Amino acid sequence: MLPRLMVITDWRLPRARLLAALERALEVGPQVAVQHRHPEATAREFLEEARLLSGLCHARGNPLFINGRLDVALLVGAHLHLPAGGLTPEDVRPHLPTGRLVSVAVHDAQEARRARGADLALVSPVFSPGSKPGDTRPTLGPEGFRALASALPCPALALGGITPESALLLGGATGFAVISGVLEAEDPGAAARALVRR
How far is CA 163 from CA 46, 76, 112, 169, in A? Predict the structure, then answer.
C-alpha cells in the first residue's frame, strides 16, 4: 500500500520532541510513512538514526523510507527515497528486494521525466515550506502541482507548505508530504489525521 502521508524527519528538533511527534503521527495508521532525512549527519549517525526509526515504524506497521542511501535502506529493511539529480529508480531497482518501494523528488518537468520506474514522487515546493524559511525557490502552486503530477508515471505526494487548510486546494494529489506541518504542530496526531482525511 502506498502511503497517503509521508512525514520527513527534521533532526534540528530536540530528539525527544521529534520522536514523540512521529509516534503520534504513526498512530494514525499504516498509510502514514516516515522519510529519514538528515544531510548533516555522519554516516554512522545516519545509520543509528535509521535503526531507531526502523524500530519505531516496523513495530507499528508503518513504511520507512531512507533518503538517498541505498546501503542504509538495505541494512534496515526500508524503502528508498531518491533526491533529484542523483541515482534514478532504474539504477537502484535491481539492487532492492522485491516489494521495496522507490520514491523520487520532483521539482520540474525534466525531473518528472527521470521518474520512470518510481512508485511515488514527492513534488515540491507547492507552497512556501514552513521548515525552510530562507527557501527562495518559486512555488508551484496548485496549478503547477497538478501539471507536474499529470506528467508523472507514478502517483504524486504534494510537499512544501502543506497544512490541512492548504491541502484542500490540491485536488488530484494522492497524498501529502510534510515536515513542520506535523512535527511542529501543537497536536501532531491530529495534524496527521486531518491530512490523511484530505
Answer: 28, 30, 24, 10
